[in-house]
Each structure stands twice: as C-alpha cells, then as structure tokens.
Known about the structure:
Blueprint (H helix, E strand, L loop, with lengths): L9 H5 L15 H6 L6 E3 L1 H11 L1 H24 L2 E10 L4 E5 L2 E6 L2 E14 L3 H67 L5 H36 L7 E3 L13 H11 L1 H21 L5 E12 L8 E11 L7 H67 L5 H36 L4 H9 L1
Parallel strand pairs: 1-6
Antiparallel strand pairs: 2-5, 3-4, 5-7, 7-8
Amino acid sequence: MRNLWQWPNITLFLLLGVELLVMPGYALTQAQCLAQGNSGELRLTLNDCVRIALERNHDIHLANETLAQAESDITRAWSAMLPFLGAEASYTGLDEDLAFSLGPTSLTFMERDMYKAGVVLRQPIYTGGRLNAARKAAHHARDAHTQNKQSVEQEVIFQVTRAYRTAQVAGAFHKVAVGAVHLLEMHERDAAILVREGANPELDLLRTRTELANVRKELNAAANALDLAFSVLKNLLVIDLEEVLSLTEHLDRPPRPTDDLHTLTRLAVLQRPELSSLKSQVAATEQGLKAAKGAYHPSVALEGRYEYIEGDFRELDGDYHWTVGIGAQVPLWNWGETGAGVRKARSQLEQATIQLQKMEDRIRLEVREAFLNLDKAEKNIAAAETALETGREAYRLARASYQAGEGTNTDVLDSRMALSRAEANHVQALFEYNVALAALERATGAGGSSKQEKTKKH
C-alpha cells in the first residue's frame, strides 16, 4: 500500500525556496492587532500577511537605508558645485626677526611671531564637466536604488504569498488525512460487524486495523507538516513562532490574467523594476565616463579671503586685509592615471549595458516559464477534479457493495486510498496554480506597488 504522503510529497511544498531566517519575536503591529480576535488567535488574510511583511521585513529596511545613503550622495554631489565657505587660522614662530639692514637703516620683513586668521570663500568655475556629471550620476544611482527597493518588495510579496499558500495546502492535506482516518474508522466498524456475524473472515478486520494505524501515522506527519508550514509563514512575518495563527482564506482558484504571452512579456519589459534599475545604472555609468574624461580638462576656481594678519611684511602691527584671485590647474602628465580612469569608466559602462541585456533576456524567460506553468496547473486542476469525482463515487460503490456482502475488503481499502490520493492531488493542483499565478505576477512586475496599494485599501 502506497504511503499517501509520498504521493504529493508535502516536504517539497515546505522547501520551495522559502528561507527560514532566525529572527526574534516582535510586538504585534497595528495590522496584527486589528486581525486578532478576542481569543488571542491571530486571523490573517493574505493581504494582511503581505502588509505585515512589508512593514517589518529586514531586507526592505536595508533597502531603505541604502536609499538614504544614495540621497546623501546627491547632497554631496550638489555641495561640490556650490561655494565653499570656511575659516582658517595659523601661527608661525621664528627663531629671530627677519630684517634687512642698509647702513644705519634696518627694515623688518617678518617678526618672530606671525598670526593669521580669517575666512575663505572658494567657488569652482570650470572642472571639465566633472562635477555636473557626478551630480547626474548620483541622481541616476538614487533612481536605481529606488527600483531595487521595489524589486525587494516584489520578492517579499511573492515569498509571503507562497508561504501562505503552503500553509493552506498543508492544512488541506491535514484535512485529507483526518478524512482518511474517519473513513477507515467507519469501515472498521463495518468489518467488525461482518466478522462478528461470520459473513467475512477475521483477516479483513485485521488488515483494516493495520491500514488504520498507517493512516493515523500519516495524520501525525500531516500535523507536523502543518506546524512547520505555519512556522515558515510566521518567520517571514517576523512574529513569534508561538503566536497562534489561523488563515481566513481557503485554497481556491482565482482568475488568471486574460492577456496572452506576448502581451505579458511586453508588460514585464516595461514594468519590471530590475530593468528600470539597470537602465538607471547605465545612465549613471555614462555620467561616470563623462566625469572621467573631464580630468583631461583644466580646473578653474575663484577664491576670496578676508583675514587678520600680524607679523609679516604686509602688516607688522596687525590689521585686516582682503584678497580675491582666480586659479587654474592644468593636467600635463600623471603617468597614465587619467587614461586608466577613462578606460575603467568605459568598461563599467559596457558591463552595465551587458547586464541590462542579460536581465531582459532573463525576464522574457521567466515570463514564459511562469505562463506555461500556469497553463499546466490549470489543466491539472481540471484533471484532478474529474479524478476526485470518480474517486468519491468509486469509494461509495465499494463500501455499499461490501456492506451488502458482495464486495471485498480489498476493494474498499483500495478505493479509499485512491480517494485520498485524488483529494491530495486536487489540493496539490490548486496549490501549484496559485503559486504559478503569483510567480507570473512577479515575473510581469505586477506584484509590487500596485498590489501594495490594493492591500492598503483592504
């Protein structure tokens, strides 16, 4: 007799890439408190779980910090283009005054103690476009990080959706196991009556009880798998594993997108944040190349000072002075440093372009794979529904025949196993359909901001 849980191997459902992160328990969020009933049980819809995960996921928090750093880089790039205002002070001590004697006349150029203090204003005038290119590159880098955050959010939504569906299917498998135990318990009573009346051999009762013990063992495995599935979901939501959690939605068959594969692929190329991020990175590296080439050009800056001077030839007794000047720095020879920087920036641009092309090809493949998997899952549901109907009827007929003394115990046990397998296959088909649908939403870029807005409205 084949083990029921070897047919739709439930372990595979619990290990579908959902990472078990070791996280401490946190206090309930507002969304959780609203979902918590009077009994202390946390009752969550899928939208509730998505909203909680988006509020608390560590990867999203890390993406926010990276985005904050990118905003700071923009500020730094802007500040390099604006005037610099600072204060300076210096003291110089000599062993003796510097003086020039001509006959009886002596002129002092520098005293032993020299003081200087004041403010300086410096404004870059021309840098070969380096500063402006750096500013634009910082903006493009910020845009790339923004898109990366959306990509992280989409992945979190998919992981939570898959974990929620896994918990649903684990609950459905547990229900199938409970039903199998119930059917065998009823059949055990039927077999005991027929054996007691002498209509059937005692072997029928012994075999039924052996099968019942095996199914109870499978029920224990299903209960363990259910607990593990809920633990995975709680871990993704960053809530305590001891929290009592129940799902308010049932595993069903939501409608699939009506667009064809070509339309979905085109939407994915337009919507996927990974592509937008790489396009921003290409734009940033283009500006980086311009900045590197700007090192070939001279740098011109305007500088003004207002300072107090005491002890040198300009003012021995001490007084305030101002100076205004303009300076230029022209690169002549730096042993190939500028050329190496340009070659590196050009290579980085080429690398970003290749990554963009590679990502577009990957996205096209992901959409096709998700679309085909959804088609397969949809067909499997139809086949599973047919098998479930015939399995129920076959078990009903086999049990009725056995109760009438015409059928065999083997017919009942086999039809019961076939029914349980059909029920499990139907649940598995629904699970695969929902996961494939979530994968298609992620592949087309439809599982991010739009879905978040939907969860907020609910």
